[in-house]
Amino acid sequence: MKLRIITLALALPILAFLGSCGTEEAPKPSISLQSDGITANGDIVVGTAIKFSVKATAGSSAMKNIVITASFGGKTQTIVDTALITKDIAFVRNLKAIGSPGDDVKYTFTANDANGESASTSVTLSVLPILGSLDGQSGFQVYNAASAGMYTAFDLATAQPLLPGGALSNKDILDATLSSAQQWSKTWKSGNGSTFVKLTANDWNNASSTTFLFNLWKANKDKMTETIVVAKDDVILVRSGQALDFNLFVVKVTNVVDLPAVGNNNDYAQFDYRGVIK
What is the domain extent for residue 255? Predict the structure, then answer.
């Protein structure tokens, strides 16, 4: 019995040693942002030049690559993907700030080691508008989607009424009536992810600058919806889904014409609006 106990006592340290040898992890790389560039979360004016200074060291003998991505609005795009064969690297990347006013853009920097390990760091920059005055346009209509040959959509960035069909990317306002509907829905949606919220008449009266609209959006951003029912005298804030330097517009519905005749689908909502218009 004593011999068996001694044998077991000798075997346990050996098994522990063998177990520890089998779980050893490959060394990870390191990556950091240096003080001669942006290193922390903050605000940035739309379109501003930004600078990142990156330093990375492989955990093994060499790095595989460095990848920089920008994520906002539910999408991610790769900005840099640099193949490497060195152990240490330091570089500066100058960029134009990505995103539109109101976007929180997360820049992620990832070092991928040749041994399969990786490490990341990130900063988030909140995009602010350039201070400026608003342009004004008036007397536009968006017609019932069931109408024939009428403008059923609108591009707020260029003040262009749009016919059915074609690309959806510039359709900030799009009549939402279904083809099977018996009645005009008096509802707007978009083709590009634009969102809507109703404001007050006083907001329309005071809307003269990009800063004012941006502050309205900050106060109402959690109330924005993908569709909105329109009525005469409604004031509506629209955040365009287009990639614009300034993507906020305020719309005032000046008339809603619902034609009573059966089969006449040329109903429309008429509106004026303000924003930065090309």
Answer: 135-275
